[in-house]
Amino acid sequence: MVDSVGGTDRSNETSSLSESLAREQTSAASVREQELRAELAANPQAVAALDQLSANLNCYNLSDQQRVEALDAFAAAPNAATAAYVEGTVAQTLGVNPAATQSLLSPDAGTLTIAGQTYTIDHGTLIGADGRPAGTINNNGEVQLSTEQQPRNVYSDLSARVRMQEQVNGELQTMLDLHPADRRGRLDDANVNQDFADRVRQTLERARREGMDMQTDLAYRTFAQQDALYAQGRTAPGNRVTNARGGQSWHNYGLAVDLVFSTPTGQPSWPENGNWTRYGQIADGYGLTWGGNWRNPDRPHVEYHPGFGAGDAGQFAGNMRQGGLEAVWDRMGIGQQP
Hints:
Layout: H1 11-26, H2 28-39, H3 44-57, H4 64-75, H5 80-94, H6 98-105, E1 109-114, E2 117-122, E3 125-127, E4 133-137, E5 142-145, E6 152-153, E7 161-168, E8 171-178, H7 194-209, E9 214-216, H8 223-231, E10 256-262, E11 268-269, H9 276-285, E12 289-290, E13 301-303, H10 317-332
Antiparallel strand pairs: 1-2, 1-7, 2-3, 3-4, 4-5, 5-6, 7-8, 9-10, 10-11, 10-13, 12-13
């Protein structure tokens, strides 16, 4: 190839550039990043955090393996706080600017309510109501209280309320904002099957890790409550909200729950632009059936009925009347009593 301007043969330069681009596209880090982008495509906030992390990693002299390890660490909780923490660990490993590194590893400000106590966050230190240091918190979600030996985690502790903030260009920006995920104890109800409840807890934890602030809304309903709901918009005032009579809903067997998003004040919300699709993907990964895939979508709803279809609930009414919930769960092989 001859340069049309200077007449210089630049074929070697072009070849080197092409080879470099090809290596970049097939590197292990590039492949891992594309895998993450595909997995998180329905969560734009998580993708934005990945964009930020990827751009920042380019500022460091990292091997391909080091980049893969950084991306794997981010994948455990893909959100803006984790992106800062991962960059901090990279900088720490390389010995870059210790002061700036510490700022990346822990939140600059915010609040935390955990184990029944509320703390103010001051550069990673938890300050109690008495104004004294009471522990630490990192941007990876790990909390160490001074009164406890074992650390806690704001993602797996579904009762935790946390807001992590960082100073960015002189202004505080919220990196993570989560409210209690089961504040009314729906999943601890004895009428809710615990195999199912555990899968819902796993779904909520993963959603929290991805920065999705979700909480339980409706769970168990009796046959009578279901009939009253069915009457709404038919023989009783109100809009129609269900096509299932008593015994025809998995809610009646403690095998369904509605999960919704939280408002900035922690109240339940059904935002049109919420990450519903990503929530459904997460739920599906834990063996739950998501109502968002139905012909008449019910995006908050998930249910669990191993070996049976979504429309099979009605055939368990007899089991319920004869032996209660345990008889229903035993028939499915998920009974709680020996």
